[in-house]
Amino acid sequence: MSVGDDVAATAGTRDLLAAAAAHAADWLDTLTTRPVAPARTSEEMLAALGGPLPDGPADPREVLDQLVADMDGGLIAMGSPRFFGWVVGGAVPASLAADWMTSAWDQNAGLSMPTPAVAAIEEVAGAWLLELLALPAHASFAIVTGCHMAHVTALAAARHRVLERAGWNVEHDGLIGAPPVRVLVGAERHVTVDRALRLVGLGDARAEQVDVDEAGAIRADALAAALDGHEGPAIVCAQAGNVNTGAIDPLDAIADIAHGAGAWVHVDGAFGLWAAASPRHRAEVAGAERADSWATDGHKVLNVTYDSGLAFVADRAAHRAAMSVTAGYLPPPHEDGGPRDPMDFTPEFSRRARGVPLYAALRSLGRTGVAELVDRLWAGADRFAAALGEEPEAEVLAHATNQVLVRFADDDARTDAVVEELQRDGTCFMTATTWRGRR
Ligand SMILES: *Cc1c(COP(=O)(O)O)cnc(C)c1O
Fold first, then answer.
1. Which of 158, 76, 133, 418 minimizes the C-alpha distance to 282?
2. Could you give the CA distance from residue 202 to residue 180 in angstroms, rounded to a whole number?
3. How far is it, in rounded angstroms, from Cα 327 to Cα 343?
């Protein structure tokens, strides 16, 4: 048997894929009824999946059936309508189906020349997203793994521009000996902002923490005081949607203050930025469009299959300068106008055609479908906040966007016990956090 025989759609391959489709439908069917939490522990899963490296080949159908049987008990029903943990999305059907096609097509999506369809679909998805999120139409974008890598991408662009203005070429000369860059972050920023700052060499502990209000939103007066009289390279990281409280920073005021001091404004809008896609909630992120870069997710509010992160940069030249690559064996860089080479805008070189399931989600939902997703998600949080507010033991500490922060009997141990019992019971799944030193 030749390699060609292996990959051609022989009867065996068709049967294999049909079996995978049936297994997938079975899984989706159980989502509404199965307990949300996994039934088995990591140790049990290691025992089920482990053993010696197989000596030789196995029948693909047997591999598939065994895999599905072995994995089942150790999976969590993240796509269940009763999963409320962290900020995790499900998958709209068109996105899931398109994700399968992405694997079948198996395109290396780094360049446009060999796979024009993939480059074009990203171009279209990027433009649609800018419109949906009410961001500047001229902004560039990158489809990455998640909001975290979107921070890395956007902060690399920010680093390029603020240092270029100070006469320093950071891509050539690195950060050693560079003019200092001030980085200002809200005291309640997401942890991925810190890691992104580490990865782009700006350091997490060096970042100056700006005071926040009760809900964790940056205090505009504190930012103004911190930047008073400042000149030189500076980056301000704002947030649309705090992971605990849902709070959104005063983005309009932040743009005024930061731009007044010549600073770059980056917005972590992993889930909160999606308020812009809803006429009802748009005002919550007023001023977001005035930032210089934005990071958000497709795999949260939009319910695109994992992984789907999005970076947008108003200063396209800075974005490209931070990420672009050239090599003799690659086609020459694509000039602006036509579909670009995705690898000139992403930290990845070879990459999955992530734009495909993203495009399919947008195409299947449309503008009104996305707005409805946001409205229903925000309304679901309202219902939780209202119902929990009636419970004598529960105290709703914060509630905005899609987040509800609740504490039980004003006691850490009791709060953890409630969450553990909920998870064990399996009817639904919620997760605990520490906010201002309290569970
Ligand atoms: C989820 C989240 C992130 C990180 O996103 P990933 O997609 O997991 O990389 C960053 N910021 C906020 C506010 C988040 O909720």
1. 133
2. 9
3. 12
Burial of 258 (0-12, 13-18, 19+ CB in 10 A): buried
| The pLDDT value given to residue 150 | 98
Q: Is 20 left (phi over 0), alpha (psi -120 to 50) or beta?
A: alpha
pLDDT band at 1 (very low <50, low <70, confident <90, very high): very low
The region of weakest confidence among 143-157, 215-229, 322-336 is 322-336
The one-letter code for the residue type at 164 is E
**pTM exceeding 0.85:** yes
In ligand 1, the atom with minimum distance to the C-alpha of 271 is 15
87 close to ligand 1 (CB < 6 Angstrom): yes
- What beta strand segments (E) does 224-289 contain? 234-239, 264-268
Separation CA 395–CA 163 (nearest Å)? 47
The pair of structure tokens assigned to 435 is 């906010």
Best mutation site among 88, 244, 266, 268 for ligand 1, i.e. most ligand atoms within 8 A of its Cβ? 268
SS3 236: strand
Burial of 383 (0-12, 13-18, 19+ CB in 10 A): exposed
- pLDDT of 113 > 60? The answer is yes
CA of 197 to the centre of ligand 1 (A): 14
Give tens-digit pLDDT for 170-206. Answer: 999 999 999 999 999 999 999 999 999 999 999 999 9
Taking each continuous run of H as one helix and of E as one strand, the counts in the chain are 14, 9
Q: Under a CB-based contact definition with an 8 Å cutoff, are residues 296 and 149 in contact?
A: no
DSSP string, 309-378: EEEEES-HHHHHHHH----TTSPPPPPBTB---GGGTSS-SS---THHHHHHHHHHHHHHHHHHHHHHHH
266, 293 contact by CB (below 8 A): yes
